Write the structure tokens for this entry.
Amino acid sequence: MKIGFAKVGTTAIPFEISKGSLKFSGTLRKFSRYLIELEAKMTGDLEVPCDICAEAFIHAVNEGVKFHLSDGLSKVGNESLEDIVEIEDSMIDLDELLVSELELYKSNYFSCEECENSD
Ligand SMILES: [Zn+2]
């Protein structure tokens, strides 16, 4: 799902996409002249490896995400926000954003039920 940067105004636009058993739903809203705020929830089941025993297990995801999208970082100037993601061709590619949020999420520490119960 792609949305043009210029199409997003101050009225929040809801979106919902899914990838496998994961759902990414939230809103896009114009934050300032060159920034759009994305607020969303990532929910569903994700197979991750346990950081202790390395066995894959199903982890239930329920994560809120919030960041800003910029149509060209050079225009943002002195808006000192750290969580800015630059988009390409003035198009917001929600599928691509979900994939990168997921990769980020996967870098967290996970432990399976068995390892959790064995300390
Ligand atoms: Zn384990």
Q: What stands out?
A: DSSP finds two helices and seven strands in the chain. The pocket of zinc ion is lined by residues 50, 52-53, 55, 111-112, 114-115 (CB under 6 Å).
